[in-house]
Specification:
Structural class: alpha+beta
Strand order of the largest sheet: 20-21-23-22-24-27-25-26
Radius of gyration: 31 Å
Distance between the termini: 50 Å
Shape: flat
């Protein structure tokens, strides 16, 4: 999650950070909130009052006393926001340069419901002046009792075998005013289930029998069913239905151990790349490679989208992955930012959302169910610098493509150790499945007010695309009421390591992370997965996974296939990544999934010595791969030299950048006088450090901020790398450590056996 606005506004907001996040509570028809709320330049703030136990309808002459301290009230618009979202403008940029507002407004609220959260919303529409909401009150007045009621189900849960019926009793009660007629409906039913009420409407105080009938083709699983009672207002209750023995695809329970394995990998990537995964860093690029490789191997169509405008200089790409099948005109998108801050490895913020999303995507690929709608995933760059990666993605979508995205779901910081359960736009239609899953666990989630407009869902919302998402909280502090409801420590930050070096794999709550990832899977399956027969899918493996051969000879292995879902199918086998002079054959060249084939790799006497990852590809309705590590000994050929002529931009005072040279087939031991030729274009080489990085990660410094204001490096260095292995990826790593100048790695080369 990105930080809020910096400098003076941030400091003013920080003064109120310790104030309770919950609305001021008022039992009765009036209330006051005297907590200070800072009003920054060009910002909107809200001060809430929760009205409860008001037995009267609001008056046509309700009063709202307001005291706002501000040095230019002509900048301000002030509105009263009713619980249903209706806005009543109290002050609309009048008063010019006058100081402060201290006034009581009379408002006709007779069309509203009394009980709920009312808000005073203040919008500063110009620069140069700040202020605060000092205090405000609300007196709803009125004398006519408001008719109100409640609804409950008993029992609250039940189990049914597919093809049978479950029943429960829906009970209503009159809680205020007169009894009224309420109509009963149910939502959240899985495909293959229907609901009926007997009777379908009741007078509050009476009950009805809810019957849920299931088909044999229904998916086994647990489903939170929302029972709605609609009268003058709408009330809801939740019935948790468990279906057993269904023949449809089951909504999976995502293995938290696999999610944590991805987190561990993100931690390792950070530790190997300067301790962080900032969008401009080698750690971010390695994170991109990790996610992309996992998705491609699982059968996704994966693209790296370079952010060519609006992103920080040197920022890495977005990763976009799409699963085949489903209606391409109805796209459900799931996303998380992959970058972190420079202070630490960024495991909760936002390795947690990225890892949860990745594992859900991999499980979808493994299950390969029939799809009704299209599913697309996004891992965003440069979120921490201003939501830049997701904003760029949305900006590049033609209007027709934007309209195809029915909902975007965002996941940012879903493993906070002192976490809460927050949903973006919790009362919206796009949040229905997410809220239903957490409701089924009795979690009582709340609106994500802390995260409003601070994560990538804002990029979609601002473009008119409905958005929702899960979060467990950042630096805001848990209230006493939240600690009572959810556990944890009252008065402490939801994430005590927010944007800090301690945001490591130790900074994760398994409970919160597990509830988030299972909610993601529930939402995806409910949004896009059909109940038909699972698509045909298969896997491929190779045994043994590696082998050694003398140049001029052959080596064999067994390529095995298995049917993962659906019917067996015929797959074609091929091999790629072979060294020069080597060929591969399969006997047979195609098999029915479940059968195996013998892979034979033949080498020539001239095949270079070295170790080569050979990719075994099986192609059927999908493409699946496995890797065989081939080691060739005693061969000729190969090369102990290499050059990379491709330009690599060196960002100003930014993260290190790498340029790679791959050495393969070098049969010599690297020399104590190996040669590295370097040409770097830069107007102030005293800013630069330059190092040669061996395949095992060892760094050999070539240039360390010498040369002052001289232009460019065009030099040949002699380096003792006699302790290294020759074959593998060698890197030239360059970092600019001072401001005001940028440059380019123009070309470089290495000769290990001069």
């Amino acid at each position: 999650m990105r930080r809020r606005r910096p400098l003076l506004v941030a400091a003013l907001l920080a003064l109120t950070a310790t104030l309770p996040a919950a609305p001021a509570q008022a039992a009765g028809c009036s209330g006051t909130n005297d907590g200070d709320f800072a009003i920054g330049d060009n910002t909107t703030v809200e001060s809430p009052i929760a009205i409860s136990e008001c037995g009267s309808a609001p008056s046509a002459t309700a009063t709202v006393p307001v005291k706002i301290v501000h040095t230019y009230i002509g900048d301000l618009q002030v509105s009263l926001i009713a619980p249903d979202g209706s806005a009543y403008v109290l002050h609309n940029r009048s008063g010019g340069s006058a100081d402060d507002i201290d006034q009581t407004y009379t408002v006709d609220l007779s069309g509203e419901t009394s009980n709920g959260t009312w808000k005073l919303r203040v919008n500063d529409n110009a620069n140069n002046d700040t202020g605060r909401i000092d205090t405000w009150s609300l007196n709803l007045g009125g004398s006519t009792p408001a008719n109100d009621f409640s609804v409950a189900v008993s029992p609250t849960s039940g189990s049914v075998a597919a093809g049978s019926t479950a029943t429960t009793t829906v009970q209503t009660q009159t809680t205020a005013g007169q009894a009224q007629t309420v109509a009963l409906t149910a939502s959240g039913l899985p495909s293959g289930a229907t609901a009926s009420f007997s009777p379908a409407s009741v007078t509050s105080g009476a009950g009805s029998t809810l019957s849920i009938s299931t088909a044999t083709s229904i998916s086994s699983g647990t489903y939170p069913i929302t029972v709605r009672a609609a009268g003058t207002t709408t009330k809801t209750a939740t019935y948790t239905l468990t279906v057993t023995g269904g023949t449809g695809p089951q909504i999976p329970d995502i293995d938290i151990a696999n999610v944590k394995a991805h987190l561990a990998q993100f931690g390792t990537i950070a530790s190997q790349n300067g301790g962080n995964r900032r969008s401009t860093s080698a750690g971010y690029r390695a994170s991109v490679a990790y996610v992309k490789d996992k998705l491609a191997a699982a059968g996704y169509s994966v693209t790296e989208q370079a952010c060519t405008s609006g992103c920080t200089t040197g920022a890495g790409p977005n990763v976009i992955a799409e699963w085949p099948g489903g209606d391409a005109n109805n796209v459900y998108m799931f996303g998380a930012h992959l970058d972190g801050v420079s202070a630490g490895p960024g495991i909760n913020d936002n390795g947690s959302g990225s890892a949860a999303l990745l594992e859900t995507a991999l499980v979808l690929a493994q299950r390969n169910p029939s799809m009704t709608n299209k599913v697309r995933f996004g891992w965003w760059t440069d979120e921490e610098q201003g939501l830049n990666g997701s904003r760029f993605y949305v900006s590049q979508l033609p209007s027709t493509e934007r309209s195809k995205i029915k909902t975007y779901h965002n996941f940012d910081m879903v493993g906070s150790t002192n976490g809460g359960y927050f949903i973006n736009n919790i009362s919206s239609a796009q949040s229905t499945h997410m809220k239903a899953y957490w409701d089924s666990l009795g979690l009582q989630p709340e609106e994500n007010t802390e995260g409003r407009n601070r994560s990538d869902d804002a990029s979609f919302t601002n473009a008119g695309i409905p958005a929702s998402g899960y979060a467990m909280g950042a630096s805001a502090r848990k209230t006493a009421a939240q600690a009572t409801k959810w556990g944890g420590t009252s008065g402490s930050a939801f994430d005590p390591c927010y944007h800090a070096s301690c945001d490591t794999t130790a900074n994760i709550s398994d409970t919160h992370l597990n509830r988030a990832v299972d909610g993601i899977a529930y939402t995806l399956w409910k949004s896009a997965v059909g109940t038909g027969t699972p698509g045909a899918d298969f896997s491929v493996s190779v045994s043994p996974a590696s082998g050694s051969v003398a140049a001029g000879s052959s080596v064999s292995a067994t390529a095995g296939t298995a049917t993962v879902s659906g019917n067996a199918q015929t797959v074609q086998l091929s091999a790629s990544g072979l060294p020069s002079g080597a060929t591969a054959s399969f006997s047979p060249a195609s098999v029915q999934t479940g059968a195996s084939s013998t892979l034979t790799i033949s080498t020539a006497a001239s095949t270079p010595a070295g170790t080569y990852p050979v990719t075994i590809t099986a192609t059927g309705t999908a493409t699946r791969t496995a890797t065989y590590a081939l080691t060739v000994t005693g061969g000729g050929g190969g090369s102990c030299t290499g050059t990379n002529p491709n330009d690599v931009a060196i960002p100003d005072a930014g993260a290190a950048v790498d340029s790679d040279v791959v050495i393969s087939g070098c049969s010599s031991t690297p020399s104590a006088s190996s040669v590295v030729t370097v040409r770097i274009v830069h107007p102030y080489i005293g800013d630069l450090t330059v190092a040669l990085i061996a395949p095992d990660g060892t760094a050999y410094t070539l240039h360390n901020r010498t040369g002052g204001s001289a232009d460019n490096i065009d030099r040949t260095y002699t380096v003792n790398v006699s302790g290294e292995g020759a074959n593998g990826t060698w890197k030239l790593r360059v970092r600019d450590l001072a401001a005001s100048d940028v440059g380019t790695i123009d070309t470089w080369g290495v000769n290990l056996a001069p």
